[in-house]
Amino acid sequence: MNAHVRVALLLAALAGVSAAAPTERAALFDGDPGWEGHNNRPRTPPREVRQDFGYSRTDHAGGEPGEIGGFVTPVAEPAYYALRLPRRTLRDRLSASGTFAAVGREFHVLVGLFNSRTLVGWRTPNTLALRFYGRGDVFCVYLEYATSRWRAGADSPRGFTVRDPATGSAEMRGFASRGVVHRWSLTYDPDAAGGRGAIAATIDDQTALCELGEGHQQDGATFDRFGLLPVLKQVDGAGEVWLDDVTVDGRTERFERDPGWDALGNRRNYRTGNVRPRFDFGFSPTRYAGGRRAGEIGGLVYRGDSTRPETMAFYADRIDQLSLDGPLRASGRLALRHAVSDSTALIGFFHSRDTLEVEAAARHSLPRGFVGAAIEGPSAEGFLFYPVCRLRDGGDSRGRYDSAPHVYPDGAAHDWSLEFVPTPGGGGRLTAALDGHASTVRVPPERAGENTRLDRFGIVTTAIDGNAQVVYFDDLRYTARR
């Protein structure tokens, strides 16, 4: 073999090694990267919002003129009308009561204790409240709370429910709207439920009980207001509600004159873009995620729905087609600025066509052919950052809630990473870490005939719809070819 042949074979071998080895790409977003976007920017205009509630000389909820309430719109932006309180916590005994009347057919409001400085999303941290939800001629009531760490609980199944005689299942009880006056009460005992704490409530002669979850009292919650506020999700059906004869910790206010309670955003008209499912994410000149320079990706990310193609969206970089036969890596910075129960944000590897395939029924929450990380969690745990995967024709694989790190929608910047390591015989281990705290899930081998293809990296929506998060990512590094 002559020298020219040996050199040619050596170059070919080196080229093969280079082609097989994973190559990472960096995206610092100092300028618009021109990534591919699909349904990620709004196609509809913002919605008009009207908030018009507070003190009034009307008498919808009591026998004499004078009450609080009015027209309340559920929306993401904070608004309230409330009594200032001395500092209260989950170590204190708490009580409130009064009358309630609904004039509107649609509404979604909270009545209870909250913290004026942490009105971020729903379930809103530092709250202990009754949630009134208007449904035409009746309304339903939910008893709920959330700690300072966004961990939450509610009264179901021991709530304001009624048994269906045919099936025996519990359904929410409907209370009459159209101006019918109801009496309500709300009490919290820190020593109940074996020391965990419990909330009891009544609507007329109906009762509900909600015991705090394990460790939730230790999370703590601080309350500095009692009053009325919209459910802070996204803009939805609005209507009139009224309160009178309110007693808080033994002090009664009959509203014979203006009490001068504290107010925020309760008398205004404006426009909001937070309308379900109005996506608005992609490149942004901001610096929320703590990158080295201004510029990042993210924004308002709702869950998608694989049965409705117009609600599936992504913003992503084109990469060489990869598979689960080799390693995958990604890392960067993130900041979660707003989040709502029943919301999810996904970042990772997916396929531009497979992931968007329309499905007859939304049986999986993850889109087809996705390998990455999720920000979500059950209400009892708040929000977690953990690994998730769905093979092209398989089911969901998820990290364990009890081992995943929490991420709070407080705008703080974090380091994160993602790594998939294949195992002999197929499948592998997928690990996601936030600030060095890692969670791992086993990815099962693909069945014969499957081939999970990955040709995009970025933000993509889920396959079952729900609420929204506002999240940003920066200083990304990710596998782009082998």
Q: Can you offer a commentary on this structure?
A:
With 482 residues, this protein is mainly β. 5% of the residues lie in helices and 48% in strands. The chain contains 2 helices and 34 strands. The strands form 5 sheets. Strands 3, 4, 6, 14, 15, 16, 18, 19 and 21 form a 9-stranded antiparallel sheet that branches. Strands 1, 22, 23, 25, 30, 31, 32 and 34 form an 8-stranded antiparallel sheet that branches. Strand 28 (384-390) and strand 29 (396-398) form a beta hairpin. The longest helix is centred in the first third of the chain and has 18 residues, at 3-20. The protein is elongated and about 80 Å long. The two termini are 31 Å apart.
Quick structural summary:
With 482 residues, this protein is mainly β. It contains 2 helices and 34 strands. A hairpin with a 2-residue loop joins strand 8 (127-135) and strand 9.
Topology:
Blueprint: H1 3-20, E1 23-27, E2 36-38, E3 47-56, E4 67-72, E5 80-89, E6 94-102, E7 108-114, E8 127-135, E9 138-146, E10 152-154, E11 161-163, E12 170-172, E13 175-176, E14 181-189, E15 198-203, E16 206-211, H2 216-219, E17 222-230, E18 239-248, E19 251-253, E20 262-264, E21 267-272, E22 280-284, E23 296-302, E24 314-322, E25 328-339, E26 345-350, E27 370-376, E28 384-390, E29 396-398, E30 413-422, E31 428-434, E32 437-443, E33 454-460, E34 468-481
Antiparallel strand pairs: 1-34, 2-24, 3-4, 3-21, 4-18, 5-17, 5-20, 6-14, 6-18, 7-8, 7-17, 8-9, 9-10, 9-13, 11-12, 14-15, 15-16, 18-19, 22-23, 23-34, 24-33, 25-30, 25-34, 26-27, 26-33, 27-28, 28-29, 30-31, 31-32
